[in-house]
Amino acid sequence: MSEGEERVEVVRGWKTLWKTEDWWAVWMAFIVIGIALYCYYTGNVKALKTLAVSAPGKWTSWDQVVAYFQANWFGYLVNYLFWAVIFTISSYILGFKPKTFLPSFTFVYLVSVGIFVVAANKTVHNYNLEPPILAVILGLILSNLFRFPKWMDDGFRVEYYIKTGIVLLGATLPFTLIYMAGPYVLAQAATVAITAFLLVYFVGQKFGLDKRTSSVLGAGCAVCGVSASIAMAAAVRAKKEDYVFGIAAVIVMAIIAIFLLPAIAMSMNPPMHPGEAGAWIGTSEFADAAGFAAAEWYGEWYASHIAKTITIGGVTADTSELTIWAYTLMKVIGRDIWIGLWAFVMAVVATTRWEVEETGARPSPMEIWWRFPKFVIGFLIASALMTAVTVSVDTYTYLHVMKPNLIGPIKTMRTWTFIFTFFSIGMTTRFREFMKFGARPWAAFFIGAIVVIILGFILSHYIFGPIAWQKLPLWAPRV
User: Which residues of 152-182 are buried (b: 16+ CB within 10 A; e: fewer)?
Assistant: First the structure.
């Protein structure tokens, strides 16, 4: 079998617990959560904050930066060693060589520190150039102007980093918010996931693309770009080149959407409500990391230029967090579950119609479980666990003790994983490699992408905006 015809397979059975990124992302995140809970309840908050070292405050001179690192160098060393050791061990189990992963990750980490520092500059901050945006831009510049050794790709683990960050995000998002938003989230996500997949699939067929190629592109556009492309390729036994192109198309569109969606939301009069903007980005973005970058950017911009807080029904919430909450609900809870659903449906179609003459194989009822994104389960468990912890204290204790000493450090660790992700996206986006696929698959994907963005705007702003997303503060008043 030639390389171009090699089919994608997936890991099944108990070994998925230690042989897949999804599960390792869950284990990584719960190691962080476990350390945070242990330190908090044993009174070792100082140790926790040493591990969860953050960027310097807004600075105007390099003398301030030097003084900051002189006082906090040990925290950065501990933080680096924590990530390096666990990521290296887990990556080795997943099949990556430590001798290539560790040097590459060290490069990612050092650049991430620099991004943190630059983003904290007062002038840069005033222009709303948040760390995720800087990370993507810098990665794109470096990867497209310079040639890095191929082995360094081992450290640019976009999927692993973002899934770990998303599970950590669950620890800072109340389960009550997920429960109460359910009907709106599921309805909006289902509308987009079904419409986009069918549109791209049938447009691809009209353009003469292979059924499997059309399925991979449809999943990448409708659901969760990279993960969905890979899962669909395995479900229908597509060629590896199919999901390689699917990932390429997702990355290009995701980067465009990082800048396009917030810019449109900012230009509206009045600017789009942060809850609506987060839902629109969650409905219309094509990759988890890119969507988070766009949501964070808009939330920070809204807080800086329009209003830092929003009060509704007597409840006040931070606008910079509202966009993240809405985005996470729509993308992680709403759309990502369609990875498993679409993969299962198309696995049935492929095996009962497309492949029956080739193999005679029939789909197993367990197929949907093998395709389901396990990090979403970790997200839900983390949310439920931390909700149980936070509801056990009164509001004053939560705001003045638990939030800064427990939730805050977890958020900081989450931020580290997202910076790793955004920089890795840029470093793996090499535009020169994207032109070899021809025009037809690009056209099919971008037609679907345009429809997704328009449909997402209508649903988020006009249909569910007034009844759901504008009332988001009522769902989670204490976060």
Answer: bbbbbbbbbbbbbbbbbbbbbbbbbbbebbe
